[in-house]
Amino acid sequence: MTLQPQPRTRTALVIGGGIAGATAALALRRAGIEATVYEAYDSTADGIGGGLTLAPNGLNALDAIGTADLVRDIGSPMTAIVLHSWNGKQLAEFGTPPGVAPMQFVWRTELYRALYAEAVANGVGIVHGKRLVRAEQDGEGVTAHFADGSSAGADLLVGADGIHSTVRSIIDPAAPQPRYAGLVSFGAQVRDSGLASTEGRTLMSFGKRAFFGWWTTEPEGTGRDGARRDGSDRDGTAVWFANLPRTEPMTAAEAHAVGAEEWLRVLTTAFADDRSPALDLLRRTDPADLLITGPMESMPEVPVWHRGRMVLLGDSAHAASSSSGQGASLAIESAVQLARCLRDLPQHQALTAYEQLRRPRVERIIKAAARTNSNKTPGPVGRVVRDAVMPLAMKLVKPEKMAWQYEYRINWSEPVPAPSTAATGARTGSAAPASHSA
Questions:
Q1: Which residue, 55, 208, 300, 342, could crosslink 86 as a Cys pair with Cβ 3.0–4.6 Å?
Q2: How far apart (Å, rounded) are the C-alpha atoms in residues 135 and 173?
Q3: Helix, strand, or coil (residue 95)
Q4: Per-residue pLDDT averaged across 331-359, rounded?
Q5: Calpha distance 26→116 (Å, rounded)
Q6: Topology match between the domains 11-73+108-178+300-375+403-437 and 181-297
Q7: Taking the mean position of all CA atoms in its chain, how far away is CA 365?
Q8: Contact criterion met (CB below 8 Å) for 197 and 236
Q9: pLDDT confidence of 1, banded at 50, 70, 90?
Q10: Which pTM value belongs to this model?
Q11: Residue ranges of domains in the chain
């Protein structure tokens, strides 16, 4: 008997139009797969969200599909991180490992806008107002059903719908839910900050009651000698972020309901005893400019990344805490690797190969970020121990040992081999029932 060749993936539905979804659609198009993005919100996400860092490995992944210059055009290099205790004592300073490009700070809305425009320019269809409610699949394809009664079909459905993913629950109704990290996050941009430039460094303070980070750029129009070209004495623009410990979990909606003025009052109290710029920057922050990011969350290990013709991508599968500085970069990496696998392998093999390529790396980074979060929420005794031990511990840390995170590169032209037979096995859920509903 002659075996029929396994079909390749020709079309894909990408659920979620954020950074992961747009990157996935671009990568799939480059792999020769027609991808359409379905976004739950009626409008674009312009003006929504704060800042984020793109690590060198994230830029490398964008380079693989020819889009990294979009980020370089809008990003600001971040050359080092300096850690302080609540009393202003420097605990440690570390930069990017030798030979590795610096991280880039970008505003989420600018990155979103750039990727969205690039996707549209490359022929990707993006449909708004399509909130997924259920999906059905069989040997011929998968059909997504939306809240407005419409539906769409393709060879594959990609869940790029974030940490509170609907697709994850459809693939595996027993899938874990996001884990609260015990912190609520905030941030803002402050013009005329009163601070000198931090010269590309991010400064961070482990405060008595909360964690505070900031960096300051040169004022616009500053020359190489630091003098203002227009003769003014205007200070640079500062960007700050804060992680406030809170035992009781709260949703993003509940955090927003508290209101910016009340949160600024709470934060002012939290940083009252700290010797950092926190109080002054908080006083200079217009409540209208406060970004209430909400609870910091991460995902426990997600046992099932794909089932049948559905697969998870980015935060829906591996949401790293923002402390990792890797959330967006890992999502971008996964989008490019998924496209490579689907380009080179039959679909069922491609999804297994994708998980084998990605799971060990992302879970290692997520565990490292969880350790960082624990340093932000110690009690009084833990704070003293941390501040005493950290300077010594950081002296023993060699930057090159972190290079494995940042030097990760994807060779787009290299063929993806078939997955190992000792793969993820039952975790992949390859034997899928015909229909799943959220």
A1: 208
A2: 13
A3: strand
A4: 97
A5: 9
A6: no
A7: 12
A8: yes
A9: very low
A10: 0.84
A11: 11-73+108-178+300-375+403-437, 181-297
177 closest CA partner among 169, 188, 187, 189: 169
Name the token pair of 434.
């015909």
Enter the DSSP assignment of 423: S
Q: For a pLDDT cut of 90, what percent of the chain falls above it?
A: 60
Strand partners, 186: 242, 292
Structure tokens at 314: 């980015």
DSSP assignment of 42-93 equals SS--TT-S-EEEE-HHHHHHHHHTT-HHHHHHH-EEE-EEEEEETTS-EEEE
**Residue 392, number of CB atoms within 10 A of its CB:** 10
309 in Cβ contact with 168 (< 8 Å): no
Q: Which residues contact 251 (CB under 8 A, 6 or more apart)?
A: 294, 295
Classify burial at 263, counting beta carbons within 10 Å of its beta carbon; exposed 0-12, middle 13-18, buried 19 or more: buried
User: Edge-to-edge, what's the strand order for the sheet holding 76-78?
Assistant: 51-54, 103-107, 76-78
Nearest alpha carbon to residue 351 among 252, 235, 430, 290:
430
How are beta strands 156-159 and 179-190 bridged, if at all?
unpaired
181-297: CATH topology: D-Amino Acid Oxidase; Chain A, domain 2 (3.30.9)
Helix, strand, coil share of the chain (percent; to 5): 35, 25, 40
Q: How far is CA 373 from CA 297, 320, 321, in A?
A: 10, 11, 8
Rounded to a whole number of angstroms, the distance between the first and last alpha carbons of the chain is 41
55 Cβ contact list (under 8 Å, min separation 6): 103, 325, 326, 329, 405, 406
Which tokens belong to 72? 């370089």
> 4 CB contacts (<8 Å, ≥6 apart)?
none
pLDDT digits (tens, 9 = 90+) for 221-264: 433 344 433 333 445 889 999 999 999 999 999 999 999 999 99
Domain 11-73+108-178+300-375+403-437: which CATH class?
alpha beta
